[in-house]
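input
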Amino acid sequence: MTTKFGAMQHFHHDGVTIPVSRGGRGRLLVLCPGLGSTQADLYELAELLRRDYEVVTFDLRGHGLAPAAGTYCFEAFLSDLATVLAGLGHPDQRAVPVLVGYSLGADLAVHYASEHPGAVAELVLIDGANPVPEPFITEADLPDFRAMWEEMATRQETGRGSARQVLLTAQEILDLNVEIDGIRSEILDRYRRIDSPVSMIMSTSMAGGGDEGHAPRFNLNWRAGVERLVREQPHISTSWLDADHRLVFTHAPEIAQIIRCAIGPPARPAS
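output
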């Protein structure tokens, strides 16, 4: 099937169907969305990259064109990514993909690459996989986060049945964010096991601007995590965008250009 996202395939595993879109020509690049985002949300970035690369995008379980699932946890989402990568195939078996992950997708990319040596040519991590020194969600913060995601879940009701729908409840999203906090506390060890080049594209104000509320503390924690990572892994290149965590939607042209610079010129067919 061909859609506006490109040629559409469906991969089945773990009782769920993962919709996968593929389009463009050149070096293979797999674009992994994050928690609460879909391939439809990444459409602008994917289209910009398809000018130079063969880009694969997909929906995680419970997101977009993928159906609801009985289990939502980090390992379940990681299995979705692994299923996509295992099922892609390629006419040129030497073409190992570049893996680009946004938010949770960046964490999934780091875990996949650390567990599959040689399976990923390069990693580009967009505002995720950050070894922050302090968790974002403390007991004191729980009420605010619960209220925020309940409001978000209410807004998402209007998108039900569309390519941008998110089927997770506010409690499921809250539980996942607490789980991700724990995973990021141990992610430095994952970076030590990666044998591919890594580039990061990070927001300067991931929690938003201003001096009120939680934003200043969260933003400082976010930057401290990247600085911590680069001190230990100085070969990792980092680009900062003056944006919040929605940078992949608000700054798609800038991100596409950084990715082109990070992974080198597109492969051209031999004459």
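quick obs: The domain at 2-263 is CATH 3.40.50.1820 (Rossmann fold).
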